[in-house]
Design brief:
By secondary structure, the chain is mainly β. It has 2 domains: about 50 residues, no CATH class; about 170 residues, no CATH class. The strands form 5 sheets. Strands 5-8-11-14-17-20 form a 6-stranded parallel sheet, with no helix packed on it. The chain has a 5-stranded parallel sheet with strand order 6-9-12-15-18, with no helix packed on it. It has a 5-stranded parallel sheet with strand order 7-10-13-16-19, with no helix packed on it. β2 and β3 form a beta hairpin. It is globular, with a radius of gyration of 18 Å. The N and C termini lie far apart (about 45 Å). The N terminus is likely disordered.
Length: about 250
């Protein structure tokens, strides 16, 4: 393959009879990239890639606004799959297979969201030139909060959050099923089935869970079914007024 690109997943066709542990121990691949070529090696046990359809994924997201502040969008009843999402700490822009990109009033419901390299749904912060520069320090996160308040769409109840995420199936993601730093405030997350999250342990860090939020202020998390995840629900800094009930 000629050229340089961002690659994250290789998918192969199959008969639908994959073994039950395929999510934990799938066939693997890796790539080498230089200035002019990207070369991929992949395992295709039992399948001839010259005869089957193979998808090489380069898209960073499936549904994600190009700018912050795209408010009051409803995404309902879709099958959303296969995104090369980047790993992101809470101090950086968090891009999911579907994400709100620092907005207000989204409804994400009755969707099937699967096979994201990192996060399925992202309700996280905006991006800026300071992303990934905090060196995992408390001071770095405090500065992130300060920049969120100073951003052109400031982090206030009037501008950010108030999302509804309900009745989705979210699976096969290697960071989080639903992630959100600052942007999940005042939201409702209910009735979702979340499974097979970070089961392959491809990454390390403190952002891995079925649901992982920073600043889940006045957020309602109820009646979600979370299983086969490295952690179920993780509420980090500033979980103020959060209500968690009826989850399994």
């Amino acid at each position: 393959m000629s050229g340089v690109g961002t690659l994250c997943l290789v998918f192969k066709g199959g008969t639908g009879n994959a073994p039950a542990n395929s999510a934990v121990n799938p066939q693997l691949w890796f790539a080498q990239v230089d200035d002019s070529h990207t070369t991929i090696w992949a395992q295709f046990e039992g399948v001839n890639p010259n005869e089957e359809q193979v998808e090489i994924n380069v898209r960073q997201a499936v549904f994600y606004p190009d700018q912050p502040g795209r408010n009051f969008i409803t995404v309902r009843g879709f099958i959303l799959q296969h995104a090369a999402t980047p790993w992101a700490p809470p101090t950086a822009e968090q891009i999911g297979l579907i994400g709100t990109h620092w907005s207000k009033g989204w409804i994400i419901e009755n969707n099937v969201i699967t096979h994201s390299v990192c996060s399925g749904i992202a309700l996280g912060k905006h991006g800026d030139q300071f992303d990934n520069t905090s060196a995992d320090t408390a001071e770095g996160y405090v500065k992130t909060i300060e920049r969120a308040h100073a951003f052109r769409i400031p982090w206030t109840k009037a501008n950010i959050g108030h999302h509804i995420v309900r009745n989705n199936v979210i699976a096969f993601c290697e960071q989080a099923g639903i992630v959100g730093s600052l942007g999940a405030a005042f939201s409702t997350v209910e009735g979702n089935v979340i499974h097979d999250i970070h089961v392959r342990h491809l990454f390390t860090g403190a952002e891995m869970a079925g649901i992982k939020f920073h600043a889940a202020i006045d957020t309602v998390i109820r009646r979600n079914h979370i299983y086969r995840t490295t952690r179920g629900l993780w509420l980090d800094w500033m979980a103020q007024g959060t209500r968690v009930s009826g989850n399994l």
